[in-house]
Write a structure and sequence with these properties.
This protein is α+β, with helices and mostly antiparallel strands. The protein folds into 3 domains: 49 residues, no CATH class; 65 residues, no CATH class; 61 residues, no CATH class. The strands form 3 sheets. A 3-stranded antiparallel β-sheet has the order 1-7-2, with no helix packed on it. Strands 3-6 form a two-stranded antiparallel sheet. The two termini are 64 Å apart.
Length: 241
């Protein structure tokens, strides 16, 4: 029987050589087999230690820049279908759009992560802050180590020109404030009183009145007043590892 034709390992015919082939053709079949192996993997120059699982797993996106490149064997339509964002009518792998995703039969979450070629933790590197109105820790969604931060506090941008805000994670401020005397606007509370029985200036019928200036009685409770800005309460976490 004649040898197969073709360039790669998929050209091999498992039925060859036939039992009726002459023994003299065995060398030709062996040489053909070796040639197709070399042509299929021309760049293998050492031992391949990957398992079949490693070889069957590959990233679909091969770049991390603004112009994505897809790995061989996967196209943009398949990626859109897997993420459920395509308009081509194909069945998506993600069947729900909410906080509890449902995957279609035959696809797993690790396979989706592998397809994207990224870890969800890449979105939130160490030092990132995550906010939510749901109490579930982001470690449940992304992995990593997270700590709750900012209880009763708001976030503010760093300002190198202001010593109150020139250090990352510096804290300060208060919820209430009691005014000091220096913080009260300048004003007066004085009055003038005439004493008609005293001696002094004119003004009384007998001409013997006197006048004096006194302060009013003290008033006010001296209590602190709120200085809270309008707010929205959320959960906040910081990734530490």
């Amino acid at each position: 029987m004649a040898l197969e034709s073709g360039n790669y390992i998929n050209s091999l015919n498992a039925s060859n050589p036939a039992a009726t082939d002459a023994l003299s053709q065995a060398d030709e079949h062996l040489r053909f087999l070796k040639l197709k192996i070399l042509e299929t993997w021309p760049n293998i120059t050492g031992a391949v230690t990957a398992t079949q699982a490693d070889l069957n797993t590959r990233s679909a996106i091969t770049t991390n820049g603004s112009v994505p490149a897809l790995a061989s064997g996967i196209d943009a339509t398949e990626v859109r279908s897997l993420l459920g964002i395509g308009g081509d009518g194909s069945a998506p792998a993600i069947l729900s759009d909410g906080s509890t995703p449902t995957l279609a039969t035959g696809i797993t979450a690790p396979q989706i992560v592998t397809l994207l070629g990224v870890s969800l933790l890449n979105v939130y590197p160490v030092g990132s802050i995550y906010t939510s109105v749901v109490s579930t820790t982001p470690a449940t969604h992304f992995g990593g180590t997270w700590v709750a931060i900012g209880a009763g506090k708001v976030l503010i941008g760093i300002d190198a020109a202001d010593t109150d805000f020139d250090t990352v994670e510096e804290t300060g401020g208060s919820k209430t404030h009691t005014l000091t005397t220096a913080q009260i606007p300048a004003h007066t509370h004085s009055m003038t009183i005439e004493n008609t029985r005293g001696t002094g200036g004119d003004g009384a019928e007998d001409g013997v009145s006197s006048f004096s200036t006194v302060d009013s009685s003290s008033t006010g409770g001296g209590q602190a007043h709120p200085i809270v800005q309008p707010y929205l309460v959320v959960y906040m976490w910081k990734r530490t590892a």
